[in-house]
Amino acid sequence: MASEEWRLAGDAYLRRYEEVRRWMPAGVRRLRSRFSLHDARVVGLVADEDGPRMTLLLQIEPTAGRPAVALGLAYHLVAGPAGGYRFHRHPEAAEANEATWVLHDEFDLDEGNHFFVHRLLLTDGSELEVRFHGLNVVRLGGKMVTSLKDGGRVRAGELSGA
Q1: From CA 62, how far away is CA 37, in angstroms rounded?
Q2: For the chain, the helix, strand and coil percentages under 3-state DSSP, each to the nearest 5
Q3: Do residues 102 and 121 touch, judged by C-beta distance below 8 A?
Q4: Which pLDDT score is estimated for 158?
Q5: Can you spell out the DSSP letters for 46-83?
Q6: What is the distance between the terminal CA atoms of the chain, rounded to a whole angstrom?
Q7: What 8-state DSSP symbol labels residue 160?
Q8: pLDDT at position 152
Q9: What is the structure's pLDDT at 149?
């Protein structure tokens, strides 16, 4: 039954996204047309202490038709108590992994408050909710190296995604 509930929820989200897509920032529309964040590895989050900016660093793993790509999702956050980003716990969604991966993500429009919301359900059982006005997607290159073992040397092929 759970798979049927997921399918219905996914269908409802797609209908909702089609309703609000035209109001989404260009960065959201570009991201959606070029990449799927499902199974992207969360590398880190960089929050600007002096302003309303936050960047989520993701590694999209290679597939049969596409090489690995590292992305920075640079959000212009909503200010004030209704804005910013938050983590919510969903222990029932937690999986046992060393790394944190994106299980599902969705964009929406908060019509009452006039801002956008990006929700990412993660394998550690948390949901990252980002409330933002704008999104800039920065392609950082191929494979992101997150551990500099062997005295900080990068092994051949690590940067190319080979």
Answers
A1: 12
A2: 20, 40, 40
A3: yes
A4: 45
A5: EE-TTSSEEEEEEEEPPBTTB--EEEEEEEEEPPSTT-
A6: 40
A7: T
A8: 46
A9: 54
For the stretch 25-84, pLDDT in tens is 999 999 999 999 998 999 999 998 777 999 999 999 888 888 889 999 999 999 988 889
User: Is 24 within 8 Å of 109 (Cβ atoms)?
Assistant: yes
Nearest CA among 109, 130, 111 for reference residue 119? 130
Return phi, psi of residue 33, to 5°.
Answer: -80, -20
Q: How far apart are CA 88 and CA 57, in angstroms?
A: 19
pTM (two decimals): 0.80
Q: How many residues does the chain have?
A: 162
Whether the CB-CB separation of 160 and 142 falls below 8 Å is answered with yes
